């Protein structure tokens, strides 16, 4: 995949490194040449100095052949202008912009430009952790609306069908770790002693999960 990244700050540089390690062809743009010092010595990524909405620079960067465009500078206006140029002028298939102001994020979503609203995501994450401090939370998804969790199966669920833990639109068991080996459950799968469950949970379903995990009589 050919990817153009605008902004070589903490996010842009790390994204460039991870994509490069995965074998993707990355070009990263920043208005300051010194920003590329964040990249490790000898790291193979094409670096270009300039603005992410400069069409001449984008043409030189090969945007017409790009599969994805990501703008993650520290300025909302720069990010959205760059993203709109990539989407509306060059028709890049995948365009993503980072937005700090959550009020703007909804507006830009209407322009069919996916945004990563770091402020909104952070607030949702903190609120959840304050009200439900859980070591089991491994990852947040979809801007903080979904969470991937890893839980030990409680004794009272041993022998029960794995899908008995599911709740339509709220909780979904996606995998079970049994004795160091994992499997995706089917309709007939049942929990055994020592099982570890991997599930996806909607942030509004935490109380429902707690009720499911509580022993009978403690609901």
SSE layout and pairings?
Elements: E1 2-6, H1 10-21, E2 25-30, E3 46-49, H2 55-61, E4 68-71, H3 76-89, E5 94-99, H4 102-110, E6 115-117, H5 118-131, E7 137-141, E8 146-152, E9 171-178, E10 181-183, E11 196-202, H6 206-213
Parallel strand pairs: 1-2, 1-4, 2-3, 4-5, 5-6
Antiparallel strand pairs: 7-8, 8-11, 9-10, 9-11
Describe, in plain words, how this protein is organized in 3D.
The structure is a single chain. 29% of the residues lie in helices and 26% in strands. It has six helices and eleven strands. The strands form two sheets. Strands 3-2-1-4-5-6 form a six-stranded parallel beta sheet, with helices on both faces. Strands 7-8-11-9-10 form a five-stranded antiparallel beta sheet, with no helix packed on it. A hairpin with a 4-residue loop joins β7 (137-141) and β8.
Low-confidence stretches: none
State the CATH topology of the largest domain: Rossmann fold
Number of beta-strand segments? 11
Q: What share of residues are in beta strands?
A: 25-35%
CATH architecture of the largest domain: 3-Layer(aba) Sandwich
Distance between the termini: 50 Å
- Taken in chain order, the helices and strands follow as EHEEHEHEHEHEEEEEH
Strand order, main sheet: write it out. 3-2-1-4-5-6
Number of helices: 6
Number of domains: 2
Mean of residue pLDDT values = 82
The percentage helix is 25-40%
| Largest sheet, strands/sense/barrel | 6 strands, parallel
Assign the CATH superfamily of the largest domain. NAD(P)-binding Rossmann-like Domain
The dominant shape is elongated
